[in-house]
Specification:
single chain; alpha/beta; eight-stranded parallel barrel; globular
Length: about 350
């Protein structure tokens, strides 16, 4: 397997890359690289030159850039909303995927979602009062309000009046099918895996918009519609744990997708509770038996990247690095206990 770590632009730096290498990470993911990291983002796509420079920077620390996660919302807002500029944006997204292939970045993770994450607050619910993401539908004053026009993934990408109203499940499938029919041939030619993240929270409808990836069955429907080896799961273990279908659902999902060889990489998260209320926990203190989960990945031949996500925040000088170091140490210890070989 590959021990990975995800960076946001706010946590990414030369020192952070050195830190990652020192704690035993070999592969990294970057979530929506900023225009400062990839200047071509201002043009509506990511250029091969910018991506190659990013790869060289990462490799300079003895690491591998395994994945980019999520397009800039403004790069594909009209694809998500079936807007008048979606053909133009589709051309740019194709260029981005082609350029990922040229740069040798093998995975593009993405969320095909309009409402993004809502109902989440940062509260002291994790062990010892550590601050972590908490979801409670009833505490979200916007949950049942329609999305304003011009908003995608929690961001206002353009000025617009009114709201989107109701968006049906059939309409969301139509938009997704339109996207996949066009991007998968490009991804296959470029050698890039398109890995879709489950909707988090995995509720069927949020802000009057239906959500697609809220169950294993929905993923199976996706694979039936788009039977490509480059159509993959970005397996957020926490999100599958949150789904309200029983305590073994997450283990069944791991077993199901690993046997299909459909997992591109894993968000190795632990949470406590399920819909309609749950919260993030430390990796060793949630509802998931992490050793049982990792055993399933191992036994079914998964050899991809596992990364922590949403680590609880502690009252120390460097909260993020402290939480990450704790989590990576635990993950490496699990791998050692289960005799899982890690890539250098």
């Amino acid at each position: 397997m590959k021990m990975g770590l995800g960076f946001y632009p706010s946590t990414y730096s030369e020192d952070a890359l050195s830190f990652a290498k020192q704690i035993g990470v070999s592969h990294i993911m970057i979530h929506i690289p900023s225009a400062e990291m990839l200047p071509s983002a201002r043009e509506g796509y990511w250029s091969a030159e910018d991506l190659q420079a990013l790869v060289r920077q990462v490799e300079g620390h003895g690491l591998k850039l395994e994945a980019i996660e999520n397009f800039e919302p403004r790069h594909w807002a009209h694809i998500l909303t079936a807007g008048p500029k979606r053909e133009e944006q589709m051309d740019n997204v194709k260029r981005t995927i082609e350029n990922l292939g040229k740069a040798g970045i093998p995975i593009m993770g993405y969320n095909f979602s309009l409402a993004a994450v809502a109902g989440r607050k940062m509260l002291p619910y994790a062990r010892g009062g550590a601050i972590s993401p908490v979801y409670d539908k009833d505490a979200d004053e916007n949950f049942d309000k329609p999305l304003p026009n011009g908003f995608v993934w929690g961001q206002q990408v353009e000025e617009a009046e009114g709201d989107m109203g109701d968006v049906s499940l059939e309409e969301m499938w139509d938009r997704y099918d339109w996207f996949m029919d066009r991007i998968l041939p490009v991804a296959e030619a470029a050698g890039v895996k398109m890995a879709i993240h489950p909707d988090d929270p995995p509720v069927p409808v949020m802000r009057h918009v239906n959500r697609l990836m809220v169950s294993v069955d929905r993923y199976d429907e996706n694979f039936r519609r788009h039977p490509s080896p480059n159509n993959m799961v970005e397996f957020c273990q926490g999100t599958f744990t949150e789904m309200p279908y029983g305590d073994d659902y997450v283990y069944d999902a791991i077993d199901h997708f690993t046997k299909m060889q459909k997992i591109a990489y894993v968000h190795f998260r632990n949470v406590r509770g399920k819909l309609p209320r749950y919260y993030e926990e430390f990796i060793d203190s949630g509802d998931v038996d992490m050793m049982r989960a990792l055993t399933l990945y191992r036994d079914n031949g998964f050899a991809g990247m596992i990364i922590p996500d949403h680590v609880p925040t502690m009252p120390v000088k460097e909260p993020w690095t402290t939480g990450v170091a704790y989590t990576i140490g635990y993950m490496r210890a699990l791998c050692r206990a289960l005799h899982i070989d890690l890539e250098d």
